Amino acid sequence: MTATLGRLGIWRISTALDPELAIEVEKLGFGTIWIGGSPPADLALAERLLDATDSITVATGIVNIWNSAPQAVAASYHRIAAKHPDRFVLGVGAGHREMTDTYTKPYQALVDYLDHLDAAGVPKTDRVLAALGPKVLKLAGDRAAGAHPYLTVPAHTRQAREILGDAPVLAPEQKVVVDTDRDRARATGRASVGMYLNLRNYTRNLRRFDFTDDDIAPPGSDRLIDAVALHGTAAKIAEGINAHLDAGANHVSIQALGDDPLPSYRALAEALR
């Protein structure tokens, strides 16, 4: 990979990201800002975040292949890469069957999208794939710099590393709630996780790692919520983040849940030094 991700980054939905937050997390020492959701093909937000900062990497997590034409995305990539060399990573993925009317043969559609990016000169070293299952993980190792899995556990990270091999980047997302009130923290986690428990790509993947139908049934069992939305003190959460790194992740993208993520990121930056 051309860009440097660092060990730790932040993940934030695009509508909740702005240059002021980017400046603060860069000061805290995080290596990458992941733009969550499906940012449009102009990638204007990525450019604004890069303009406002000095060295932090910005990545998309992810551009949806059904919503953003590869030619337009490639043009945006080249504009940003020329202005901010070695600081931008293009994350792409097939999104969710339930949210896309045209969701047919997603694996082949992803392969075709990568072919278009190749033809437009977007280098393999500057892109990652949203990947959960073995087939797309292998594709991420073959056709991109690596994988950016979402809503996973360290057991998935371990398996993903085995599939990818040693060289590709593995950068899972991890939700966290810095709150020692267990019931309140679980409620915060459920508010974020619940929507994903109706999406087959995520539920199928969770079943691979010993979560049952009862665990996955919305709004999610305590066992599931505790695993995918870590809660407690910053020190306790740091153990869970380090579990991904110990399992083979190069980088963990931390999604701090709640209205104001900065106090959580400040506490985690200290705990993870």
UniProtKB/TrEMBL annotation:
Molecular functions per Gene Ontology: oxidoreductase activity, acting on paired donors, with incorporation or reduction of molecular oxygen
Matching SUPFAM superfamilies: Bacterial luciferase-like
Domain Luciferase-like: 20-250
Domain of life, per lineage: Bacteria
GO cellular component terms given for this protein: cytosol
Family annotation (NCBIfam families): F420_MSMEG_4141
Protein name: F420-dependent oxidoreductase
Provenance organism: Saccharopolyspora spinosa
